[in-house]
Amino acid sequence: MVKTWKNNELKVAKLFKTKRNPFSGSNSHQSMSDTLHERFYIEMKDGKRSLPTVLWQDTVTKAKQENKIPMLIQHGKNEKIKDARITLKLSDFLALTQTKENSEPIIPTHSKDTPKIVSKVRGNKNKEAKN
């Protein structure tokens, strides 16, 4: 019987086109990450609870030792794996979303189809009451 957390690690590894690290943690000789990804240090956690800062710091420290980008994935109970949340440093995210040719973001920040938001200017009610 395959455990849910192990199944989720397998799914995430597949999404990142790598393999699950069967001996993640201190038992592994290749990486302490949950996957054998060559660029990302992926730590997978299941459950509803929010992840403590200590776990993030631990992931960052271990990723730095392996010269990888730290990534923490949190998967909620009864949630599709693609709906899991990723914690990533903003600087790493920005670096990952840049193209090599022109350093423009891969993710568009605006488009011609995006409607402009027009706000109505309202007077200050306190000033109007005084007059």
* Helix content class: 25-40%
Total count of helical runs of at least 4 residues = 4
- Proportion in β-strands: 5-15%
Alpha-beta classification:
alpha+beta
From the N-terminal CA to the C-terminal CA, the straight-line distance is 77 Å
- Which segments are poorly predicted (pLDDT under 50) over 5 or more consecutive residues? 107-121
Strand order of the largest sheet: 1-2-3
Based on Cα principal axes, name the global outline: globular
Rg from alpha-carbon coordinates: 21 Å
CATH architecture: 3-Layer(aba) Sandwich
What does this structure look like?
The chain is α+β, with helices and mostly antiparallel strands and 131 residues long. It has one domain: Trna Endonuclease, Chain: A, domain 1 (3-Layer(aba) Sandwich). The protein is 29% helix and 13% strand. The chain has four helices and three strands. It has helices spanning 4-15, 53-65, 90-96, 125-130, and strands spanning 40-46, 69-75, 85-87. It has a three-stranded mixed β-sheet with strand order 1-2-3. Helix 2 (53-65) links the parallel strand 1 (40-46) and strand 2. The longest helix is centred in the middle third of the chain and has 13 residues, at 53-65. The protein is globular and about 35 Å long. Residues 107-121 have low confidence and may be disordered.
